[in-house]
UniProtKB/TrEMBL annotation:
Residues 165-269 form the Pyrroline-5-carboxylate reductase dimerisation domain. GO terms for molecular function: pyrroline-5-carboxylate reductase activity. Coiled coil: none annotated. It comes from the Bacteria. NADPH binds at N60. Residues 10-102 form the Pyrroline-5-carboxylate reductase catalytic N-terminal domain. It catalyses: L-proline + NAD(+) = (S)-1-pyrroline-5-carboxylate + NADH + 2 H(+); L-proline + NADP(+) = (S)-1-pyrroline-5-carboxylate + NADPH + 2 H(+). The keyword Phosphoprotein does not apply. It is found in: Cytoplasm. This is Pyrroline-5-carboxylate reductase.
Length: 287
């Protein structure tokens, strides 16, 4: 039986998320020969090619020349310069997928050759262990087949949901940035355990297992979080006392404020990436 051919793929930017994407592609059936990574840092490029066997020596423009799929994984502030660099070298029909927070599809479509299919993805770092959550949204030239290819590329990362582009800033605020809120909670719980006399190692293991187990229980039962919380809360017991203290300290309001701040920041990053009205869109391709 022959393996299904995968589109040749260039991952631009091999940082935290670029590496997660490379790892996911290789798990999803791409071979190391199918994947090029580009990196501004030569040391990081060597690290990635050593770890995954992928080619990581080419500049962005050279890497996209032979690619059917381009994954943009540089910081939002770097996206405009990378698009200007690759636009002349993109082959017609190459799908451009970006994980950059906030940067709207319109920015890619204005900078890339007319008709280039674009899909935006908002993943998160638990993708590294196959427990991620990603929202994906199509640009105006992306078809159902393009979305299906993105789903195939992300198959090893965890949950992948199709959303409208207008919802991606909210997805960023909840699941994109969300792991940091969960780690914040784990850290706070562990610290509290130390305060109450547990060793740090034990307190951390208990906090991690508790958050992991609670997420698994919510996912497997599908029960509302309030119902699950009620089941922990014996009348007059310890949990209601603890939850009342969370309320008194405004923790729920803090979570909402955190998500709102992340949402606003995502929108600001997007606004900063938009070209000035005088900029010339629609570059020609290299011949
Ligand atoms: N880290 C996360 O949890 C998530 C990140 N993202 C998005 O992923 C993108 C990358 O973020 P991270 O991986 O966290 O950042 P990072 O800083 O770890 O990685 C960015 C990488 O791009 C490289 N780079 C910079 N300029 C370059 C260029 N011109 N060509 C090629 N490589 C270049 C840097 O050397 C660096 O290794 C961002 O746009 C971010 O919004 C999206 C969802 C989650
Ligand atoms: O903090 C950031 O900007 C990126 C996007 C979502 C998670 N990390």
């Amino acid at each position: 039986m022959t393996a299904t051919a995968r589109p040749h793929t260039a991952v631009l930017g091999g940082g935290v998320m670029g590496e997660a994407l490379v790892s996911a592609l290789l798990t999803a059936g791409w071979t190391a020969d199918d994947v090029d990574v580009t990196e501004r840092s030569a040391a990081r490029a060597m690290e990635l090619s050593g770890r995954y066997g992928v080619r990581a020596a080419d500049p962005n423009r050279k890497a996209v020349k032979g690619a059917d799929l381009v994954l943009v994984a540089v910081k939002p502030q770097v996206v405009p310069e990378v698009l200007a660099e690759i636009a002349p070298a993109l082959r017609p029909g190459t799908l451009v997928v970006s994980v950059a927070a906030g940067v709207p599809v319109a920015v890619y479509e204005a900078a890339l050759p007319e008709g280039t299919p674009v899909v935006r993805v908002m993943p998160n770092t638990p993708a590294l262990v196959g427990k991620g959550a990603s929202g994906i949204a199509p640009g105006s030239h992306a078809t159902d087949e393009h979305l299906a290819l993105v789903e195939e590329a992300l198959a090893a990362t965890g949950l992948v949901v199709r959303v409208a582009e207008k919802d991606l800033d909210a997805v960023t605020a909840i699941s994109g940035s969300g792991p940091a809120y969960a780690f914040y909670l784990i850290d706070a719980m562990a610290e509290a355990g130390v305060l109450l006399g547990l060793t740090r190692d034990l307190a951390t293991r208990l906090a991690v297992a508790t958050v992991e187990g609670s997420a698994a229980l919510a996912a497997q039962t599908g029960d509302h979080p309030v119902v699950l919380r009620e089941r922990v809360s014996s009348p007059g017991g310890t949990t209601v006392a603890g939850v009342a203290a969370l309320d008194a300290h405004g923790v729920r309001a803090g979570v909402v404020a955190a998500a709102r701040a992340a949402y606003d920041r995502s929108r600001a990053l997007g606004a900063a990436a938009r070209p000035t009205p005088t900029a010339e869109p629609g570059p020609a391709r290299d011949e």
